[in-house]
Amino acid sequence: MRRPTLEAVAARAGVSRATASRVVNGQTTVAPHIRDAVLRAVDELGYLPNPAARSLVTQRTDSIALVVSEPGTRVFSEDPMFSTAIRSASMELDAVNKQVVLMLASSPTSHARVERYIAGGHVDGVMLISMHGADPLPSALSRLRVPVVSYGRPAVPVDIPYVDNDNVGGAEAGVRHLVASGRRRIATIAGPQDMIAGQDRLTGYRTVLRDSDRRSIVAVGDFTRESGAVAMRQLLRDDPGLDAVFVANDLMAVGALQSLRQAGRRVPDDVAVVGFDDIEAAKYTEPPLTTLRHPVAEQAAAMVRLLLGLSEGGPSAPVILPTELVVRESA
Fold it and tell me: Please, which domain of life does this record's source organism belong to (predicted)?
């Protein structure tokens, strides 16, 4: 069977092709009774708009790029941050009849491919996730005529709106909890220092220790469980007398708990542990993990709303979401 045409819809509804086109493309300059007649003809004929032709008329693709600056092995790993953010953004966009185009960009070749795709007009906006300090995409995309927002404050000085959580304040709350419980030698496993979350959470840790006359004891991981285990072993070698550790994300905290258990250290009797994120696994570690709740799903949804608002000329002010201390048995 031949695919129904817009001309056939117009003939069935008794209107011109131009009027049928305005209705199909969502324009509001058509009388309600004419709009109803056109939509009834669309249903009766089973008409489906041609996406390419519709984009030419509306100047919209109804697609949003979600660019993750990580390799697939990291995005599709045990880290629930990525799946939660992608799912939340997709649901928020689906509610307004838009789709996500997921793009991974972790190499110069993939950076160039993403930039070409965006510059080609294939999407109506871009959301950036997990950017690192040397990432060229924020600066490159900010020069294109397309709205861009970032999940987290950009690590480079570029004028891109963003949605973040209070990394510094959250870290301060976690470390103050350890100080209030009487811990004296408080170490940290910091996140990657080419990422804003890693930098800000380390800043919060150092601020509280400086104000409480304690010295910093720092090891650095990469937000993976294995790096947390390695960093914890390093901290125990560097300062066997440490009695607490603030870990910049929960996955690394899971690795740290494993290393403490292997070293014969009791948690929290010998070493108290505080994480960051409040992933689902934090409830089921041994012992359950005290952590800072990072609203990943809410942050991704707010990023979508900020982007859609920009497309309509809305405000571009940063959005900062609060964190919350969740006290469990590890501290």
Answer: Bacteria
pLDDT tens for residues 8-41? 999 999 999 999 888 887 777 889 999 899 999 9
Q: Which residue has the tokens 């010295």?
A: 215
Same domain, yes or no: 172 and 212: yes
Contact between 106 and 71 under an 8 Å Cβ cutoff? The reply is yes
Tell me, what CATH number does 182's domain have?
A: 3.40.50.2300
The residue segments making up the domain with residue 33 are 6-49
Same domain, 150 and 171: no
Q: State whether 75 and 221 are in the same domain.
A: no
pLDDT band at 50 (very low <50, low <70, confident <90, very high): low
pLDDT for residue 134? 79
pTM tops 0.85: no
Count of domains observed in the chain: 3
